[in-house]
Amino acid sequence: MKKITILLSFLFTLYLCSNVIAKEAYCSRGLIYIPIEETFKQLGYDVEAEYSSSVVDVKKADNKYTIYLSGDLIVKRFDGKSETFKPYSSTEKIRTDYYISSNALEEAFNINVVKDESNKELILTDNGKSYRLSYKNVDYSEIENSRNTNAEPKEKDTSLNVAYTGFLVDGVAFAPLRYTFESLGYDVQYKSSTSTIYLRNATNVYEISINADSIVQRTSEGKSNVFHPGTLPKKIGASYYLPLRVMADILEADVSWNSESKTAHISKDGKECYLSCGVYIEPTKNTQTNNNGSKQLTDEEKETQRKINEALIISSLLQRPKTGYVFLPNGQVVIVQTN
Fold first, then answer.
1. Is the pLDDT of residue 164 over 50?
2. Computed from CA positions of residues 27, 33, 38, 43, in that sequence, does the dihedral angle turn out positive or negative?
3. Residue 265 and residue 30: Cα distance in Å, rounded?
């Protein structure tokens, strides 16, 4: 009887470990943030966190990883060698805990992350081990607020569908370059000296010249293609926008458009992006004049300008700070912010 009890206890513990749904993950700005310590322990890693030094060391077999919490950097050490990964927005602090992004898990650790939208769960798989946890869609402002108040980030209002991130200009839907391409797994960089935007992932590099009607695609196989979209990138605030149709053409992505809600869904190779587009009106058009002779915005323009300001705030949050790394002889890394 004692042996049966022990066996049942072991099986029950094994069942809990394989099906546990514990601390939540958060989806925001096209990324998924997953609790670091709990996740790696569940997947069989040894975890040693040194929050005073802003690093977390995780180890499995002969591979040791150092996750730098204050910069988008992960260093892998194995067989006396090292490999450096710089995924976009690798970590995020939510409340008092640290989370790692799904793209960092996939790029640096080869951990597969699958989103089960019907059950609002994530399924993480690493060399036969799996871990499930629930996730919540939140606005990034909720994540920022959680660090100051220690309040749980509130779920995004599903009736709003998506953030106001795009614009309709003369009936043409313009999508923000950085937000859209980073959501689809691209690294986005702007070179001011040549006025060129570079979009990179593992298989393609796109070069978009701000002042020329051409987009050059270079593949990892050494091939190149030139697109002539007929529309120059549009700058609104500090960000550049490109017609949604052009993005779909050069990416060969699946795009669906809801004309009633003015929302778009873009998907490519398992990654996706949602956009909500409002009609863009130049602030100086169709304005009324007050008694002092200065122009006064109409109610429609005030509402439009308010939405534009919201979109520009979102855009500014997506601007990636420039980070520099100094690799010391003893293997440590110093992270500095550069201008």
1. yes
2. positive
3. 12
Structural domain count, the chain: 2
- Domain of 264 in residue numbering reads as 161-317
CA distance 48 to 37: 8
Q: Are 146 and 179 members of one domain?
A: no
Which of the listed residues 158, 185, 209 is the one where a domain comes to its end?
A: 158
Q: Are 272 and 292 spatial neighbours (Cβ–Cβ below 8 Å)?
A: no
Q: Which 3 state secondary structure label does DSSP give 156? A: coil
**Is residue 269 predicted with pLDDT exceeding 60?**
yes
Same domain assignment for residues 308 and 181: yes
CA 252 to chain centre: 20
Q: Convert the pLDDT of each residue in 100-138 to its tens digit.
A: 998 899 889 999 998 887 888 999 999 989 999 999 988
DSSP string of 45-72?
-EEEEEGGGTEEEEEETTEEEEEETTTT
Model confidence at 51: pLDDT above 80: yes
Label residues 277-288 b or e (16+ Cβ within 10 Å = b): bbebbeeeeeee
Residue 79's Cβ-count burial label (10 Å; 0-12, 13-18, 19+) is: exposed
Same domain for 213 and 275, yes or no, is yes
**Same structural domain, 124 and 223:** no
3-class secondary structure, 104:
helix
| 246 Cβ contact partners less than 8 Å away, ≥ 6 residues apart | 215, 227, 229, 231
Q: What is the mean pLDDT of residues 304-311?
A: 58
pTM of the full predicted structure? 0.52
Distances from the Cα of 176 to the Cα of 27, 155, 271, 314, angstroms: 19, 24, 17, 10
Q: Which helix (H) or strand (E) holds 18?
A: helix 2-19
